[in-house]
Amino acid sequence: CILIDRVCCFFMQCAVSRHRTMMNITNKAPVSEGAFVAPSASIIGDVRIGKASSIWYGCVLRGDVNYVSVGSGTNIQDNCLVHVGKTNRKGKVLPTIIGNERHSAVLHGCTVEDESFAGALVRHDTRIPSGEVWGGNPAKFLRMLTEEEKAFICKSATSYSNLAQVHAAENAKGFERIEFEKALRKKQAEKEKSTWVLFVKCHGHNPS
Fold this sequence. Notes:
This is Gamma carbonic anhydrase. The chain is built from 2 helices and 18 strands. The protein is an alpha/beta fold. The protein folds into 2 domains: 19-168, Hexapeptide repeat proteins (UDP N-Acetylglucosamine Acyltransferase, domain 1, 3 Solenoid), CATH 2.160.10; 173-203.
C-alpha cells in the first residue's frame, strides 16, 4: 500500500503480505477451535486441529487429497511439514493422525498416538504407538519413553499451550498498538539513560 499526503511531498510505502494462514481446497476448509496458528504457518484443506494445540511459525499442514487430524494440547513446532497420501502400493487411504500432547517433525500419511515423540521423517503407512521414541530418516523405533519423559511431555504440552496464548495475543495487536508500545519502550530507554548519566555525574565514577 502507498499513502501520499495532499501536496505529494511525503509518502509511505509498505508491503502487503498475500500469505493465507487458512486456505480452503474446494469444499474442504481447515477447522481449529481454541488453537494457536502462527501467522506464517499454512493450514490447507481438510485439517482438524484440537483445543489448546499450537501450530508454530513456518509449519505446513496440507490436507488436500486426504485429511489431517491433530489432537488436543499438541504442538507442531517451527517449520514442520505434515501431509497425507491418497494412493500407495498397498492401495490404502492414508490420512495423517496426530494424537494428544505430542511433538512433530515431518509426517506423511501416518498415525502418531498420544504422548509420543517423533523428531524425524515419518513415512506413509507408519504407526507410532503411544509412549515410543522414533528418530532417523526414515524414522525407526529407538526406545520406549521413561516414566519421567512421559511426565515431561505432558508438562511440556501444557507449557506450549500457555506460550501459544502469549504469541496469539502479541500477533493480534494492531498497527497503532504496536507503534504505541514501540514509542513507550523508546521513552523508557531514554529515561533509564538519563537516570544513569545523572548517577555518574553525582558519584563521579562507574560502579561496574
